[in-house]
Amino acid sequence: MSLTYDLDKLDMAVNHILDHTKSKTLLFYGEMGAGKTTLIRAFVAALGAEEAASSPTFSLVNEYLTPKGPIYHFDFYRINSETEALDMGIEDYLDSPAWKLIEWPQKIEGLLDENVQKVEISVKSEELRLLTLC
């Protein structure tokens, strides 16, 4: 299921994900600069978080509080092995009923179960992106 969206209309992409996902564990794939964090920022805001989302590149995980519970945002770009994710307690997060938004999930694929939603973002132009739910 795909959608082309303009970066100034991120709400379309967020609604597409919310309408079609079967999991609260979203795996965001896309090249550097494709807009993964930008889309996650809009997603977190749409779910009612009080603070704006930012990239957890160095902390590995950010937690955002919403009226319906926490959202966990992971960025595994800088890890070198699944052991690093295990050391930070990824299994406890993955077992949580909260939303889990994961950038660079290919770094921890061996730790993920089948109950996930892959979100692929491709750059079509400077302002257009193609979002594909797999």
Verbal overview:
The protein is α/β, with parallel strands linked by helices. The protein has a single domain (2-133), classed as P-loop containing nucleotide triphosphate hydrolases (Rossmann fold), CATH 3.40.50. The chain is 25% helix and 31% strand. It has helices spanning 10-20, 36-46, 82-87, 90-95; strands spanning 2-6, 25-29, 61-66, 69-75, 99-103, 117-123, 128-133. Strands 1-7-6-2-5-4-3 form a 7-stranded mixed beta sheet, covered by helices on one side. β3 and β4 form a beta hairpin. α1 (10-20) crosses α2. The longest helix has 11 residues, at 10-20. The protein is globular. The termini are close together.
Write the layout of secondary structure elements.
Elements: E1 2-6, H1 10-20, E2 25-29, H2 36-46, E3 61-66, E4 69-75, H3 82-87, H4 90-95, E5 99-103, E6 117-123, E7 128-133
Parallel strand pairs: 2-5, 2-6, 4-5
Antiparallel strand pairs: 1-7, 3-4, 6-7
Helix pairs in contact: 1-2
Keywords: ATP-binding, Cytoplasm, Magnesium, Metal-binding, Nucleotide-binding, tRNA processing
Subcellular location: Cytoplasm
Pfam family, one: TsaE
